[in-house]
Each structure stands twice: as C-alpha cells, then as structure tokens.
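Before drawing any conclusions, I looked closely at one protein, both as residues and as discrete backbone shape codes, quoted below without any editing:
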Amino acid sequence: MTDTAGVIGLGIMGGAFARLMVDGGVYVFGYDPSIDALEAARAAGVETMGSSAAVAEKADVIMASLPSPAALIAVAEEIAASCASGCVVVEASTLTLADKQKAHDILAAAGHTLLDCPVSGTGQQAQNGDLAVFTSGDQMAVEKAIPVIEKFSRENKYCGEFGNGSRMKFVANHLVTIHNTAAAEAMVLGMKSGLDPHLIFDVISTSAATSRMFQVRGKMMADANYDDVGMSNRLYQKDLDIITSFASDVHCPVNLFAASVQPYRATIDQGLAEKDTAAVCAVLEDQGRVKR
C-alpha cells in the first residue's frame, strides 16, 4: 500500500515538500488557504483538502510549513478539535520557541505530538531537495517522521529535546544572514573596482573564499535579478527579529549579525520587500554608487 502523509501550508517551502514527497511515492493530502497554492499542489499530484483537520484525519504524519505564529496556533487548535488521533505534526517553520511550545501543548492535550524540525535552505534549494532538517522532540515520533522527511531533504540531524531544532536554526540563520550580506558586499567591492559581476561570481564561487550563500545567491546578484524568490525580504524580517531577540535572551553578543541586518532592513524602504533576500546587493550597490 502507498505510504501517506499530509502537508499543511503549500507555499514556497511546503509546496516543494509536497511535490517531492509525491515524486518519492508518498500519497500526499494537503491544505492551504490560498487557492493558487491548492491549484499548484493539485497539479503536482497532491490530493487537496478543505481544512487542516481534514488533512489530519487522513494522515498521521503531517508536515506543517506556516508563515506566522497565529497560523501555527490556529492549525494546532483545529487539529486538536478534529476527529484525528495520534498525529505526528512536523513543524518546519522558523518561529519563536514560545510559539512552538504553545502549539506543542495544545496538541499534546489532544493526544498528538508536535516536533520542532525547522529546515535550513532557500526556496530554490527546496525545489531540488537540497535542504537540511534540524529535528527535535520525542525521538520515537521523529523516527516515525524520518521516512517522510527524507523524501524532500538531503540530510536530517537529530538535535535532542523539543526546541533544540529551533535553537540550531537560529544559529544557522545567523550565519546565513552574515554570509548573504558578505557575498553582496564582496560583489559590490569587485564591481566598484571595475570587475564584471559575472566574472566575480565565476571566480569566487569555486575559490576558497566562497560560501554556500555566495553559490546560491551570487548569480542572482551578478544578474541583478531578484524575482526568483526563495525567501522574500518582507518575510525574512521575522527571522531577523527572532534571532535578535534570541541572542538577547541568552545574553550573547552578535556584532557581525547586527551589522549584517542593516541592508535587509533597508530593502523594505527601497521597494524590495517582495524580492529575494539576495537584493541586499542592490542596497549596497546604491550605497556604493555603483553603476553597471
């Protein structure tokens, strides 16, 4: 019999999860409030449902990729009030520990298990299954979810107790933020000195100086085209706020991160909110008065 699973939230990330799960032989039930997201999921072979509760009543392992704390709590409450029993909900978003714990407690009271399993990678990487998943929570529930997780990721790492997945994701996104800004600054430095941006990308992306963010987003910076959105600047503001608050809570200085955040904030004022975060390069080009 074909394995089944659910996906709640069929946007850039969740939609990629669902498609790759279908391609891997999983029968997927999905839900999203967006009609466009539902249509895209149906085209990928997903059986779309009318609610989160309907998904939970069909699948006992569910991926949740949600945009906000309010969305997570609403989904948790809906599943808790449904006829489903014993679901394992794999929460893949970047949200605060307090928000995830609240959803965990709502589901636990109804006999379900929430796992904290954020993913590391861009929307472009998600399309190719080039994601790392930081799993945390009940280990038996994690083991039950691994066959599903493996369908859309290149690796998964068990990080321990519930919440450790998010802690690891905050560390990862701290570095992503810095590396993305550093890649943009390097591109602007090279262009300001007269180098062709495509030559910079070609040379640096295979050198000792490269980073994963330079490899993933450097071509977008060279092309000055930020329309293939893996993560929008608008949505990434949430991640920046979460990491800033997390660092403050644990009393840890994050000086490089604090400096790297500034171009992301500036994208909002410069009309780049819905562009990919690689557009920090456009901000730095403007500051450096670079003319292509």
The chain has two domains: 4-162, 166-287. The beta strands are 4-8, 27-31, 47-48, 61-64, 88-91, 113-116, 119-120, 132-135, 155-158. The radius of gyration is 20 Å.
